[in-house]
Specification:
By secondary structure, this protein is α+β, with helices and mostly antiparallel strands. The protein has two domains: 46 residues, no CATH class; 118 residues, Ubiquitin carboxyl-terminal hydrolase 26/29/37, pleckstrin homology-like domain (PH-domain like, Roll). Helix content is 35%, strand content 26%. It contains four helices and seven strands. A four-stranded antiparallel β-sheet has the order 1-2-3-4. It has a three-stranded antiparallel β-sheet with strand order 5-6-7, covered by helices on one side. The radius of gyration is 27 Å and the shape is elongated.
Length: 189
């Protein structure tokens, strides 16, 4: 029996999302036959999902790492010290009062300048932010060496942000070491 001009085409393979995810996890993307548009769409959606998941993991890692935390020291006792927490993407300034506290969060990219004002025993960090209506935030009664170190860390993070350097692959110790290398200018107070 002769074929009357029509050829028999093999039916394309159907893949589930689990098959695609498993093939990406094992690095065997080329084993999936992407001959149909539906398979190509599933592949592009899966690739986008993997890229988004990687970005999300990096953001979560960066947002949860405190690089430096310093507290105020008032005489004779400081029962509720103010705190400056420096993270990779932002600076949190926690000003504590007797029964309440105020938290200012400033993204590193929004810190336009940071000053150190010093007195005989202590220093004051002054943050100038681009985003606040009242754009000056200050924290008093810091140790001088801690204030200088905090300023160096923030300035280094500003440079990393300006140059769009991804810091998520560094450990906290490695990142602090790189930031110290970046800011080697001696500050005289």
């Amino acid at each position: 029996m002769k074929n009357s001009g029509s050829s028999i085409l093999p039916t394309p393979k159907k893949f589930t999302q689990q098959d695609i995810d498993l093939s990406f996890a094992s690095g065997q993307e080329n084993q999936i036959d992407s001959s149909t548009g539906q398979d190509q769409a599933a592949l592009s959606i899966s690739k986008k999902r993997n890229i988004d998941n990687n970005k999300l993991k990096k953001l979560v890692k960066k947002s949860n790492r405190i690089l430096l935390s310093i507290k105020t020291h008032r005489f004779p006792f400081d029962f509720s010290p103010d705190v400056v927490n420096i993270e990779e993407k932002r600076v949190n300034i926690v000003t504590k009062h007797f029964v309440a506290s105020v938290v200012h969060s400033v993204d590193i990219k929004d810190v336009s300048n940071i000053f150190i004002e010093s007195s005989l025993f202590f220093a004051k960090l002054v943050f100038i932010s681009r985003t606040f209506e009242k754009n000056i935030i200050s924290i008093d009664f810091l140790r001088k060496n801690e204030a200088i170190y905090a300023r160096r860390i923030i300035e280094g993070l500003r440079v990393f942000e300006l140059e769009k350097i991804d810091t998520s692959s560094y450990s906290v110790a490695q990142l602090l070491e790189k930031l110290k290398e970046l800011s080697t200018t001696e500050i005289v107070i």
